[in-house]
Structure formats: C-alpha cells, structure tokens
Amino acid sequence: MMNLCNIDQIKEILGRHGFRFSKAKGQNFLTASWVPEQIALQAGVDETAGVLEIGPGMGPLTQQLCLRAKKVVAIEVDTSLKPVLQETVGEFDNLTILFENAMKTDLAALVAEQFQGLRPLACANLPYYITSPILTLLLESRLFESVTVMVQKEVAQRICAAPGSAEYSAFTVFCGYYAEPEILFDVPPSCFIPQPKVTSSVITLRTRKAPPCPIDDEQTFFRVVRSSFAMRRKTLVNGLAAGFPHLGKDRLAAILEDTGFSPQIRGERLSIEAFARIANAIYREH
Ligand code: SAH
Q1: Whose CA is nearest to atom 22 of ligand 1?
Q2: 131, pLDDT greater than 90
Q3: Global pTM value
C-alpha cells in the first residue's frame, strides 16, 4: 500500500500527472500520516460504518477510511485528480468516488443507495472556503451519526465556544442544536503541502437524536438566534425588534420579562436553552 503522506511520493505522483494545486478549490494536501490515521480512528470508523468523505484530494484519508469501513463514498470536485486517485486508492473495492460538487449532491439519496444497513458517518479534511455551508448541509440533513472534520482552528473554537465568550456565534448555536461538538486535536501548517497560513483542528460533531431542549418551531428559533447575534453588543430587545418587526419593541420586552429575561441583556450571552425559551414564547404570541 502506498504511503500517501510522503512528500517525495506526493510530488512524484502529482508531477507525473501534471497536477497543479488550486487555491480556489482549497487544496492543501496532508503530508503527515498520523493525521488521517487519527481522524479515521477517532471518528469510530469500523466494519459497521458507511463513510462519506468530502474532498479526498489524492486520498490519504480515503485510504485510512477504506481500511476500516465497510463502504466509503468520496466526493471530489476536481476531475484532474481522477487519474491520481485511480493510482493511489484504485485498489479498494469498497470505495466509490463521485466527481462532482459536494454542495450539490443529493445526500439523502446517496446514503439510502450506498449505506444501506450501515451507520452513516461523514469524515473530511474540508476545503476551508466551504466549511460552514458544508457543515450546515451535513448537520441539517440529520443523516449522519457523526461528522468528523478538519477545519481552521478558529472555526473549531467558534463551533465549540461557550455562551458569552468572544467566539460564541449564531453558528455555535446552530451546531450545538444539531450535534454535540468536541475538539479532538490540532494540526500545524507543517503537516500540509502547500502549507496553509493557519493552524487547523479536527473536530467531531455527534449528531443529536432529538433537539437539546423542546422547540415549538425551528424557523422561529433560528430567527431569534440570528437576530440576537446580528447586532452584537446591542441589547437583546433591540436585536429581536429587527428580526421580528411586526411584534414591536414593547411587546418583545414584555415577552422577555414574562420569560424571565431582562430586555437589556446581550443576546450573545444566552445558552441554547435560553434561546429556545424565548423562541417558544415568541412563537406562541403569533
Ligand atoms: N483530503 C485531502 C485533500 C484536502 S484539500 C487531504 O487531506 O490531503 C480539499 C479537497 O477538497 C481538494 O481535493 C479539493 O479539490 C476538494 N474540494 C474542494 N471543493 C469541493 C467541493 N465543492 N466538492 C467536493 N470536493 C471539493
């Protein structure tokens, strides 16, 4: 089996196929074999798993997933990697590679067709320019038991941030609503070719079977969250008034008081449970 993280091997194969790195496609390939090994191990990939990988590149993670999973489907947008992947991971008969944009893949159909009877997992060293939209798709689909991905360290910290901290954001609440996120380990720039400017982190998001607290209406919940963060450092009631103009500041202030919150509090201090209580109260006012 090929060592797909050996820098000389990487250069030799890519050179022979005339491959050129694309910045626009977020291409930073791994050059440290412990990283894909640890991703596959810590994601809990085993014989019972069907794994979706996004952005296999030249296949270092793909290889580690294929060694452990029952079935792997990898989605790669760059067709110039086709002959490369044929050479590097063509030997695996439990692997299907789709050359398409992962943002446009019908994930429900893919899981139903490819992972029947298996535990669906998602694993990836994500192209950083689409981290948030891809994570949004993967989590909202509720198809995967867990999503284990490499992202920029600051994105990992944002996803795992505590209420009231500087990194706490609407995306934190979004991820926390669908999953339990955990930072697994950091990966320095020296582990890639070409080297990115920033440190990366591998995180795992274990999908929740049910929301962490009762929510009457998801749309209202996420509108409350978005409007509370839209105007950081403003009071909660001002943020909400922008998101729910038909209710007006006075009624919103009354709803907050009734639910046990000061209208003057800042939205970015609220936990998921607090957002849920406020959203439920607003929804019942409709
Ligand atoms: N997993 C490999 C490569 C990571 S670089 C490694 O760790 O070495 C990110 C990969 O995602 C690249 O191969 C890039 O071509 C691919 N990619 C970028 N945008 C994509 C998209 N929209 N859909 C699928 N793959 C994409």
Answers
A1: 101
A2: yes
A3: 0.95
